[in-house]
Amino acid sequence: MSIGEVLALLQGEFPDVTISKIRFLEGEGLIEPERSPSGYRKFTHLHVEQLRFILREQRDHYLPLRVIKDRMAESFGRPRAVQENKEVRLSRAELLEAAEIDDETLTELEDYGLLAPVARRYDEEALNVARSVGALARFGLRARHLRAVKAAAERECGLVEQTVAPILKRRAPGAIGEADEVARELSTLLLDLHASLVRSGIRSVLGR
Hints:
Layout: H1 3-10, H2 19-27, E1 34-35, E2 41-42, H3 45-61, H4 65-76, H5 92-99, H6 103-111, H7 124-136, H8 147-169, H9 175-205
Antiparallel strand pairs: 1-2
Helix pairs in contact: 3-4, 5-7, 8-9
Pfam families: MerR_1
Keywords: DNA-binding
InterPro entries: DNA-bd_dom_put_sf, MerR-type_HTH_dom, MerR_fam
């Protein structure tokens, strides 16, 4: 299954779950979908059950991810270690094919600062941005229309930076790891808040 298909299966029970949330849980090592050579995630029904388990533990018991991960190990077994070769590094041509966008759109994305290659290679987040913009293009939205989204994301990153700065200044053992955990959790909360605010705003526009 694709990540969109997984989202559709989960939203009946968890209406607030988002694609960003699923990606975050993957980044935390709680689920490990396979990858196609072009970087597409490939989910199974086991991954869906694992996600349901995680989301129920968060919703019903308010448990932190590190505790949920231990409980998952008891129910599903220990996840395999993430392999280095799963890291996405795409050429320009590979990104265009994987994201299903044209060269003009990619150039526009780079011109407006929505993504940028590193050593002429594009990582997973660049692929996600390109796919999202490609999907938005069906509604007439181009990179130039999304500058407000980029500005909002930068402001949210600023909030994360302000929060973790005092932790890093302590220079205590484990400070970097603690700051990383706080930043990840805070970014998830901000993403969920952002999604809820957008949905609420849309309901107001539609008069619901």
